[in-house]
Design a protein that fits this description.
By secondary structure, the chain is mainly beta. The protein is built from 2 helices and 8 strands. The longest helix has 19 residues.
Length: 189
């Protein structure tokens, strides 16, 4: 009876200890690439389920908007700065089902806030004016790990984008609905 009771107490304490460790990583740093760019990111822990993602990178675009109609080169690579709080809502469930949560592998809801500054554009062969914009897009996504250093991520969302067109010499700024769909593969350091 004493052995059974001791075994139950030991197993119970292990389960309690494991449940207390279900949390986002303290800090993760990595690189990701997808069809439309390359990005370096850091995710810093704010709470057990919330991480703040900061991202610097380049978004690749095939521009067919009114701002670039007069230019022959529709391919642009522009810098982007992103600040994105992420709520990882299923880490505890994944941990209880013995699924990986390292590297913040889980499902998330995010508020992506991105800014394309008017600093420079790569592949701008026609010297098209740089049109900067700011967007706020609620996003639903997943991240999964492949091995110990690689991951993939997918997300979809819709939000608002504001383009600062007057700065680039156009008649007025413009606000509109913007979609965020991404599929990325990455490397965690």
């Amino acid at each position: 009876m004493k052995k059974t009771l001791l075994t139950l107490i030991l197993c119970g304490s292990i389960l309690i200890a494991k449940s207390q460790n279900t949390s986002v990583e303290k800090s993760t740093f990595g690189l990701q690439t997808g069809v439309l760019g390359i990005w370096a990111y850091n995710e810093a822990k704010l709470s057990n389920t919330i991480a703040l993602r900061t991202e610097l990178g380049f978004d690749f675009g095939i521009w067919e908007t009114t701002y670039y109609d007069d230019y022959d080169s529709p391919f642009l690579l522009t810098p982007v700065i992103v600040v994105e709080p992420r709520f990882y809502y299923n880490l505890k469930k994944r941990s209880e089902n013995s699924k990986r949560i390292d590297g913040n592998s889980g499902d998330f809801i995010a508020l992506k806030m991105g800014y394309h500054p008017d600093w420079f554009v790569v592949f701008n062969t026609d010297n098209a004016p740089v049109v900067s914009d700011f967007s706020i897009i609620p996003t639903l996504g997943i991240r999964r790990n492949i091995g110990s250093h690689f991951n993939y991520e997918a997300g979809i969302g819709a939000g608002y984008s504001y383009t600062f067109a007057e700065r680039a010499g156009y008649s007025e700024d413009k606000g509109e609905i913007e979609l965020n769909m991404h599929l990325r593969i990455g490397y965690i350091f």
